[in-house]
Amino acid sequence: MTRDDALKQLSRLAHERAFGSGIGSACLIQAGLDALLAGVDCESLAMLAGLGRNEELEAPDLFERVLDELGLGFEAPTDRRAAKWAMAYWLAGQMVDGSLDPAVGAFRIWSDVAWDLDYPEDLQSLVACAVNLDGWDESWGVPVERLKNEALEAAAQLLSQSLCYHLQEMQYFEARETSVGSN
């Protein structure tokens, strides 16, 4: 594992925890050990990596200290819907950058996000991809890689829609500030 891989793993775990996934202490300790062996250096990392079985209860707090020291801390939005959307964008981003298998990412967006948001229109193509990938069988005559590519395209589309929305929102507020400032 490279230093960059170790930092990505720590960041991924930070996001997973912030989005409510229960990450066990043993996993946090192993991530700390992996990071230490990969050359990541911060004050609390050695303490996290060196925890024994009888000290596992200390892992979550030490993990948070490691994240703070490395600047990798992440907090999900407090609003439930906003947190679900943030999770969808994060998962789609991982799919697009290649750090998450498209079938796994699409399935997680379907099961962990879309259902809770009442299947919004913006997630429909990813949900359809997840359903197809989940039920895929060789007898379909369609290669699974083609379905994964469709999921990647749907993830990229979701991210581009999000970017367009945020750019429009920024332009609106900048125009509003300009008009308020000139009055």
Characteristic key phrases:
183 residues; 8 helices; elongated
What's a quick, concise take on this entry?
The protein has 183 residues and is mainly alpha-helical. Helices cover 69% and strands 0% of the residues.
Could you please describe the fold and organization of this structure?
With 183 residues, the protein is mainly alpha-helical. It is 69% helix and 0% strand. It is built from 8 helices and no strands. α2 crosses α4 and α6 (102-114) packs across α7. The longest helix has 38 residues, at 144-181.
Number of helices: 8
* Unreliable residue stretches: 166-170
Sheet having the most strands: none
Give the DSSP E fraction (strand runs of 2 or more residues). Answer: under 5%
Q: Would you list the SSEs in sequence order as H and E? A: HHHHHHHH
Backbone CA Rg: 20 Å
First CA to last CA: what distance? 57 Å
Q: Say how many strands there are.
A: 0
What share of the residues lie within helices? 55-70%
Q: What is the residue-mean pLDDT, rounded to a whole number? A: 89
Structural class, by secondary structure, is mainly alpha
| Shape field | elongated
List the topology elements.
Elements: H1 3-18, H2 25-37, H3 45-49, H4 59-70, H5 80-97, H6 102-114, H7 124-135, H8 144-181
Helix pairs in contact: 1-2, 2-4, 5-6, 5-8, 6-7, 7-8
